[in-house]
Amino acid sequence: LSILLSLLVPAHTTRSPNCGGVLTPSGLKYLAEVSKPHAESVLRQDLMAPPAPDPSLTSPSRNQINSVKVDEFSLTLIPDTGMRLSIDVDLGITSAPSTTKEMQLSILADLHVEMNPEGNLELVTSACKPTLEELQSTEEMDRSAPRTSSGSDVDKQINVEKICLEVSKLLLFPNERLMSLAAPFPITPSCQVRYVPLAAPMYSEQGIIISLQTTFQVSGTAIPLPVSPVPFSMPEPASSSPSHLTLAFSEHFYTSLFFALEMAGAFNTTILSPLTTVTLAEKITQMGSLFQEDLPVVLQAATRSSPHVVLEEGKAILKLLLAAQIGAVSPVFQSFLSVNVDVSARLHLSVTDTRMMISAVAIEDIELSLAASDVGPVLAALLEELFLPTIREEVLARINVVLRGGVFLPHIASFTYTDVNVTVHKDYVLIPCNLQLEARTG
Fold first, then answer.
1. What is the spatial distance between Cα 1 and Cα 233, in angstroms, rounded to a whole number?
2. Which tens digit of pLDDT belongs to each residue from 129-158?
3. End-to-end distance of the chain based on CA atoms, in angstroms?
4. Other Cβ atoms closer than 10 A to 408
5. What distance in Å separates the CA atoms of residue 177 and residue 181, rounded to the nearest whole number?
6. 338 CA to centre of own chain
7. Which stretches are transmembrane (predicted)?
8. Domain ranges of the chain
9. pTM of the model
């Protein structure tokens, strides 16, 4: 796109984007398409309501708007500025029992999105020009040329100023929906994510570009995220995208996500080994002097350092560093070995509705090393023979339990994502998708 998201905001480590999105001209066209029936409903409600009595008229107006049909409704990009909304509305007006006029109300409005003092995005109208034109009348069939209506009773009945004042409400994404973009979304019961807009969007020929920064809360408290080593910039597509929307997520986004989950204790787990103290004593003789009875061997795993994610071409790898205390419950947990576990797990990314589904599909590499022992020296090969299969299986399962709910993507209320393609590149993930208005329920 030749526009760096990092240029949208001052260079500051706490205010740098780690994800973003581009709403394409195709996406704007779709938003206009689904907004058309909504606009018609709003205009019908406004225009067909009985007019307030006008004291300047000596006799009451007998004009009655009896049909409102939106003929054209389009949204186009104005690079560097915003969007242009163009609406043509056909009106059927009865001015007497035998007279029906057909008129066209045309509205041209310039819109853009601003950031208000509260940090929320707002759709703002910067210019609006309405025109009202008479197309046809049952009394004037021989007059083929349309004429502009001015100063008529119809003008007084149609409050064009009010329509212009509220023209943004004709779209299906008014400000309540834009505010929903930054709503907190749950990941686990104690961990939430928010996507905070860092600046008003920018407009280019390729689309509307929004830069976002994730913030995470653990048990209701915002946590400081690791500092991104490099500012994130929106990747430049090879050609104009046919998709409605392209989302991009940096490597820092994924590392921040797993950091927040680690802060929430999501990867801390207790693993029951198939071994017992007696079977273990066959391999480690000093075990016999610690435990007189046969007890199940238990592993208590916790993160010992912050996890991080590495994105390569076609591959996402989670690096998870754990410390496992190996012991038995007799009757309280008594540890006799401490083991460092370094795991590299390949992640699979997909999208369901508005959630990014992340699963660990394979352990690419796993290393065990002895950190401390109450039963004398234990060779690395023996540690792996005794504990590696169990740890491999249980760590993979634990990651998938933590991530099974998915992570909500930035989205506005009532819209979901379809035709999604997730591509992992070096340092970033690209998600082109289409928008779909969800059917109303209730």
1. 10
2. 988 888 755 544 443 334 444 445 555 567
3. 41
4. 19
5. 7
6. 41
7. none
8. 25-50+62-136+159-180, 182-425
9. 0.86
